[in-house]
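Support reply, case 0932

Customer input (verbatim):
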Amino acid sequence: MGYSMTGFGRGESVQEERRVTVEISSVNSRYSDLHFRLPRQLAQQEPALRELIKKSISRGKIDVRVEWEDFDGSDSQVSLDKNLAQSYLQAYEALEDLTDRHLPDVISLLAQTPELFRMHRGEGDVEGFWSQIEEATDAALDQLISMRKREGDQLTTDIRYKIEQMTEQLALVAKRAQVVPQEQKERLERRVEELLGQSAEEYYDGQRVAAEIAIFADKASIDEELVRLDSHLRQMDLILDEDNPIGKQLDFLCQEINREINTIGSKSSDLEITGQVVQMKTTLEKIREQVQNLE
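Our regenerated output:
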């Protein structure tokens, strides 16, 4: 089973003194990339929170937001940034001088400037917050993983369908490859007959034709590529059943499958095989796009 790297989860922990809320969102990324937005008082909890999340999520760009609310608000204070307020007053005076107009209510203007005011919360029992942070994070992770699992199921179903398509395309290539040497032999014999007519046997030994066909068959043989390609597709189908992160394994197999398809295309001059090669590359690209979404 595969897990998508896209998801969102939200969890809360409510006690008598406070509420702690954790929101976790994730999107596709080749690596594990965690970003945190924490209140200053909880900054020291980031390492523990990082380890907690990494136990459940191995890959993706993950944004974590933690907020807390005191119900009594007794340890909250608001302070004024006096230096910034003085700068605003000087700017207002310069504006009045420039426009030769008087600002009617400077105090109201200052009061409506949120940058001047800062809310400070007491440190409180910061260590005691961890149990609530952990509880809220676990709830958020449950939602996130559930969402990633649902989308992952849809992705793996679609990938399996496309693997079946490629298997059918591969079977057509294998069937066609069996008759190509014989058709080449017949074309060569017709060409010799057209050029030399009834005197062909005098100038062109039949064994020479057989030798040319043998050389062509050897150069155009794609038996090994077909075997490896079939093996890669079977392996990809098995990996989809694994319960651990599978995105990187599938991405590697996509590279190997692409290599085998390219080799088949370069060896074959048959139009039907070339057409199937184009279809297989198109199907593989669709698989690769889905694989990029899997953890």
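We compared this against your earlier run and they match. Two observations from our side: The chain has a mean pLDDT of 83. The longest helix spans residues 129-196. Please reopen the case if you see a mismatch on your end.
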